[in-house]
Amino acid sequence: MSASHPRPGFSHPSDLASFLEMLGRFERGEIGADAWRAFRLLRGNYPQRQGGEENMLRVKLPQGIATAGQLRALAEVAERHSRAFAHVTTRENVQFHFVQSAELPAALTRLAEAGLTTVEACGNAVRNVVGCPFAGVAADEPFDPTPYAEAVSRHFLRHPLSSTLPRKFKIAFEGCSEDHVLTPIHDLGFRARVEGGRRGFAVTAAGGTATLCAAGQPLTPFLPAGEVLDLVEAVLRVFHRLGDRQNRKKNRMKFLVRQLGWERFQAEVAAERERVRAEGGARLPFDAEAAPEERAPEGRAPAPSPAEVAALATAGSLTGPGLHPRVSPTLDPGAAAFEAWRASNVRPQRQPGLAAVTALLPLGDATSGQLRALALLAEAYGDGTVRFTRTQDAVLRWVPEEALVGLYLRLAAAGLGLAGAGTAADVVACPGAETCRLAVTQSRGVARLVEDHLRARPALAAAAPGLEVNVSGCPNGCSQHHVAGIGLQGSARKLEGGAVPQYFLLVGGGVVGGEARFGRLAAKIPARRVPAAVERLIGLYQAEREAGESAPAFLARVEVARVKALLRDLEAIDAASARPEDYVDPGDDRPFRPGEETT
């Protein structure tokens, strides 16, 4: 994963060959549309809501890690086959939209050359195994969980069970005391522990959000690290054998646990573990008590000048429909801007004199030029890699503290020097109705409204550190809005003059102490009024917080009735009070018609 710890790729030559073979069979009429759709989903390829030849292509990045070479490949695919920018998801994937069907083979070929895979990035499979972006450099982790997460990724990629499950299956690994990947909302969540000098994990199972929010339940308080693969396989076997394959709306593992009951589910897993052991089990590719450790890079590439970075980041032009990222290079950001950025975006590593730096990607987007700039900066200042995060940002690690000014100047030159990591200004958003067939609203449009509102009022965002604002276009919650301090879920309200896009506003979600806390519905706010609602909630926190109380903790404590009263006038809208723009979904320029395809 770095110059001192190279990471083999995840692609395989058979992947492209099998894609082309199935495509040919579909085109010759040898398989039907349903079979082709099921296959292409397992290759990370979704049809968009526009239908026809428009596709979303998702690249699986285990633990969110991308090397400089892979960043350049992503940049090239974005430029040649998409809109010249990529989108980072909350599960540490990268995806491209508006990829024409005829261009999929070329895009897959370029990705494979860089060791990148789309296999099982979508569909009923073991999805991307996510990991903490600060793993290996955090001061408070008992050990680095990354090698174990990577071993799970490799063992179950193309595993016979992985692509034949009743429904998708999500796994997360965390080592820090703060849960950066939200382990309790995953089908399996692993938290690093050391007991009696042995490495292991506390494991939770059957978490999830969407239409049924469920916190993962403790499956075992301590799983010896050497048994990770066997446990995952045992749980997958139970899910594979007993999961519901008929009712798509109730076939995640949380529904199976509800059906069986927790005690029977545990018994089924225990019995499968015995069978897996009897068959010989699976071994980690390293000593479970002495996993490979990252080391500081032994050499770094020369740094490009800020002017060179700015030229690279602004090269080319963005194409295609939808909201585009706004690239605003800054060549002289000033000392005050650096200090603000350093306060929010820089995190000391446990290795003395080194830091992990977060580069914000508004709406999770990065242009081809910015991806190439990140590659250069990772090689010049970091270990030659970045880690994408669930907050849709990129982290560069192993940055010498004395080089922070130089790195900041170049990130600013790339339009990636925004401060505010971990604040409400770093809004998280799913792709929404711009491309997704399931979405009701264009979540990206409202997310940009909120971000612009808070960026214009920096003191407001700074007043509520740790507060997340997550926006989803539907209940499925791809922005993870159910576990945000302020969660927004797209919906529609019918008025006499037409339909108004609105958002269910949830407050108080989060993951604290290893437990998930789901947001409570407090109001239904017309889309154009959402920024005002966020501002009022931050004001409420400032006015009524207890000493030392954080914004997320306050929003978890405050009475819903108090919030509802605060937002009542924003919530109320009728045909007489609605303005013409209230009938237009932010991010679109046409009257809002939920369910209609966008162009």
TrEMBL record:
Residues 46-114, 347-413 form the Nitrite/Sulfite reductase ferredoxin-like domain. Coiled coil: none annotated. Residues 579-599 have a biased composition (Basic and acidic residues). Keywords: 4Fe-4S, Heme, Iron, Iron-sulfur, Metal-binding, Oxidoreductase. InterPro entries: NIR_SIR_4Fe-4S, NiRdtase/SiRdtase_haem-b_fer, Nit/Sulf_reduc_fer-like_dom_sf, NO2/SO3_Rdtase_4Fe4S_dom, NO2/SO3_Rdtase_4Fe4S_sf, NO2/SO3_Rdtase_FeS/sirohaem_BS. Residues 280-306, 578-599 are annotated as: Disordered. Gene3D superfamilies: 3.90.480.20, Sulfite Reductase Hemoprotein, domain 1. It holds the Pfam family NIR_SIR. This is Ferredoxin--nitrite reductase.
